[in-house]
């Protein structure tokens, strides 16, 4: 009876396999890196869109005034955000100088639930790409907060108010992902869009 002998790779076959693997990796790795970066850009858009949505939702559900405040993250240059809540009275409105806003430690002064009421909600942007790779810009210039009325609309009386946040890939990443913006309508809805889209494109940002 003949015995079957297992045949291994020859040196030449192994070298050919390594060469093919090298070609595959050289082509596939940049594309994978671009895909990962594009996913991070989309996640950043979601991070900021969620901020607008949660701030509006707090105003609606709590029947109060909410505000969304952005502050620069010292680590990566992106924007952390915080949602505060306030309950106005006819003689004491909830404006930018009111002392009655909630904080991370305490509910708003007139919160119906007292000590068990809403405490300011904070989110850090530390997980987002650094600003050198994804440049954030709040618009208009000089704005860092937006206020929502109890019916969920943006309060136009307090300004300058944030109308959008633009996220632009850095120079070295420009080919990996398209620019992204999150635009806030007066009705309080956050829309993710492409600021460079042509007229008529459904992805185009509202004016």
Short descriptors:
single chain; 207 residues; alpha+beta; 4-stranded antiparallel β-sheet; 1 helix
What does this entry look like structurally?
With 207 residues, the chain is an alpha+beta fold. 25% of the residues lie in helices and 21% in strands. The protein has one helix at residues 11-62, and strands at residues 65-72, 79-86, 121-123, 134-139, 145-148, 164-169, 180-184, 190-193. The strands form two sheets. A four-stranded antiparallel sheet has the order 3-2-1-5, covered by helices on one side. Strands 4-6-7-8 form a four-stranded antiparallel sheet, with helices on one face. The model has no long low-confidence stretch (mean pLDDT 89).
Short description:
This protein is an alpha+beta fold. The protein has one helix at 11-62; strands at residues 65-72, 79-86, 121-123, 134-139, 145-148, 164-169, 180-184, 190-193.
Determine Rg (CA atoms, Å).
Answer: 25 Å
Percent of sequence in beta strands: 15-25%
Total number of strands: 8
Task: Classify the oligomer.
Answer: single chain
H-E order: HEEEEEEEE
> In which range does the helix fraction lie?
25-40%
Q: How far from one another are the termini?
A: 84 Å
The number of helical elements comes to: 1
Averaging pLDDT over every residue, what do you get? 89
| Uncertain stretches of 5 or more adjacent residues | none
The largest beta-sheet arranges its strands as 3-2-1-5
């Amino acid at each position: 009876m003949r015995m079957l002998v297992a045949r291994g790779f020859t040196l030449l076959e192994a070298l050919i396999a390594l060469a093919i693997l090298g070609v595959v990796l050289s082509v596939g790795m940049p594309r994978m890196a671009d895909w990962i970066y594009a996913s991070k850009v989309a996640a950043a858009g979601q991070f900021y869109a969620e901020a607008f949505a949660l701030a509006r939702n707090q105003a609606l559900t709590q029947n109060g005034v909410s505000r969304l405040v952005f502050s620069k993250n010292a680590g990566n240059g992106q924007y952390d955000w915080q949602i505060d809540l306030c309950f106005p009275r006819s003689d004491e409105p909830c404006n930018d100088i009111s002392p009655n806003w909630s904080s991370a430690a305490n509910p708003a002064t007139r919160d119906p639930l007292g000590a068990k009421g809403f405490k300011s909600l904070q989110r850090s942007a530390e997980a987002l790409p650094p600003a050198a790779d994804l440049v954030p810009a709040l618009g208009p210039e000089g704005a860092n907060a937006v206020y929502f009325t109890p019916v969920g609309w943006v309060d136009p009386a307090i300004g300058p108010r944030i109308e959008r946040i633009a996220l632009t890939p850095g120079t070295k990443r420009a080919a990996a992902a398209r620019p992204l913006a999150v635009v806030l309508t007066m009705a309080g809805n956050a829309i993710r869009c492409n600021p460079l889209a042509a007229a008529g494109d459904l992805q185009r940002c509202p004016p």
